[in-house]
């Protein structure tokens, strides 16, 4: 969702054992860039619902959100102000299915291995590196910080 140049997005790090799922995008504004699954929040959509929906659309996986590393505010490579809500999730159902256009690969990787990626291989590396650092330092907060939409 975008409003006056502000883009609201969700992203999720899906943890399985000691590994996290990353995807490679091949989109006009992110050619062959690795990132976590995520995308735009739709108008009127609950943030938590948006995170689960985006993960399902991009990976085919159903997710239980178990934590958050927080909210990130930055100027993107397309010069938009982005407010990103990052979650941590666990798979509850499904199998990896990369049918969404622009998603070309997925990989389970140790979180500490993510820190070794070159900046040019990551989508929005300044933010991804903050998220990776928070994951490595286990700076994770309760999902209860977010109130589900009740109306």
UniProtKB/TrEMBL annotation:
Instruction: Give the similarity note.
Output: Belongs to the Nudix hydrolase family.
Q: Tell me which residues make up the Nudix hydrolase domain.
A: 1-133
Gene3D superfamilies with a match to the protein in the record: Nucleoside Triphosphate Pyrophosphohydrolase
Q: What is this protein called?
A: NUDIX domain-containing protein
The domain of life for this entry's organism is Bacteria
Q: Which PANTHER family match?
A: ADP-RIBOSE PYROPHOSPHATASE, DIHYDRONEOPTERIN TRIPHOSPHATE DIPHOSPHATASE
Check the record and name the PROSITE patterns matching this protein.
Answer: NUDIX, NUDIX_BOX
Alphabetical UniProt keywords:
Hydrolase
Which Pfam families does this one have?
NUDIX (PF00293)
